[in-house]
Amino acid sequence: MYCSCFSCPTKECMPESEIYEDVKDYYGRVLKSTSDLKSNACLTPATPVAPAVRRVLEEVHPEVTRRYYGCGMVVPECLEGCRVLDLGCGAGRDCYMLSQLVGDRGLVTGIDMTEEQLDVARKYVGYHTKKFGYKKPNTEFVQGYIEALQEAGLKGSFYDIIISNCVVNLSPNKKHVLKEAHHVLKDGGELYFSDIYCSHRLPAEIRTHKVLWGECLGGALWWEDLLRLAEEVGFCTPRLVAASTVTVGNKELQSLLRDYKFVSATFRLFKIPRNVSNESCRVIYDGNVTGHEDFLKFDAYHTFRKNEVVTVDGELASILKMSRFAEEFTFQDHAENKTESCCVMPKVGAGDCRKLP
After folding, report:
1. What is the distance of C-alpha 235 from the center of its chain?
2. 79 and 154: one domain?
3. Which among 52, 89, 226, 317 has most CB atoms closer than 10 A?
4. Does residue 206 form part of some domain?
5. Gap between the Cα atoms of 272 and 293, Å rounded
6. Which domain holds residue 314?
7. Cα–Cα distances in angstroms (integers) from residue 15 to residues 2, 20, 257, in the given order
8. In whole angstroms, how large is the CA radius of gyration of the chain?
């Protein structure tokens, strides 16, 4: 039995080694395919799968796909040429999907602590390199803990984007996950991840249930704790991209969960330098993002239509100016109504989370 308290994350109430071993056992030996899951939590996408993404997924080897356990679709925009890190990559489905989207000039690194999963991922590096028409692999896999990226040998300020798909909830120390992610991201980089969230903090009897933890329910964060932890480690406030209700689909497990409600939600968190000024401005989306030529849905509250002038607050202005999205927008200074093109990085709004339970 173990406890992972979010309000008092002390060593005494968090025997992390036991959680790690239980998760390794669950995902390395208990689960052999998605059919072995005992609930719907790891099968609930926050957003529908776009046709273009579906076509890319069809190129991934079937054995890799069979070992996929995720609750979202982690496909951020503007990926070409980017360095991407996948936290808890498992057998590598999302890594190989993104390998096609970053192109031969990009790099996708997957990190996971479960050797059985990594064996499957590494087995098909050559297969996907050849299938995608690359001269050399643009995908690599590292064994390690998502709470200790530096110990695993990952460089600081190196990655443009970090993704994660229904994995952060499995960690006994969510704050360390966010802190390490913040460290290895470049300024202006983004953590774009899907996970399971709960309507309230979960009690000990749910957090200490091994099956519920393995099914991504026992370790689910209350979404307000995500806001707090993100601020503590230096991220901008999380921006909600999409969310959908999770139906457990197992009467026995549902009875243990009582009236607690769960959602699968995708958030984007940006790393912005502290000294960047936040001034509102007008922005115009240029319509050049592949697959988003007519409009760009940035989050649940902001959709930018091509050539439409939109006034954004200082926080969002800083995000657009300082991130990889900078060259996709034209910026007009409010005071002088002066148009400029500039490069800067991303940020987030607390109100974005209000759509969650």
Report:
1. 14
2. yes
3. 89
4. yes
5. 27
6. 281-351
7. 6, 9, 23
8. 20
How many C-alpha atoms does 13 have within 13 Å on its Cβ side?
A: 11
Last residue of a domain, one of 224, 242, 271: 271
**Domain count along the chain:** 2
Handedness of CA 312, 316, 317, 321 (dihedral sign): negative
Do residue 289 and residue 183 come from a single domain?
no
Cβ(276)–Cβ(345) under 8 Å? yes
Q: What is the CATH number of the domain that holds 321?
A: 3.40.5
Q: Note down pLDDT in tens along the chain; length 357 residues.
A: 344 444 343 333 446 767 767 766 666 666 666 666 667 776 656 566 778 888 999 999 999 999 887 767 889 999 999 999 999 999 999 999 999 999 999 999 999 999 999 999 999 999 999 999 999 999 999 999 999 999 999 999 999 999 999 999 999 999 999 999 999 999 999 999 999 999 999 999 999 898 898 888 999 999 999 999 999 999 998 999 999 998 888 898 989 999 999 999 999 999 998 887 778 999 999 999 988 999 999 999 999 999 999 999 988 999 999 999 999 999 997 654 444 433 232 333 333 444 454
Q: Are residues 341 and 265 in the same domain?
A: no
Stated pTM of the model: 0.86
Residues 132 and 161 in one domain: yes
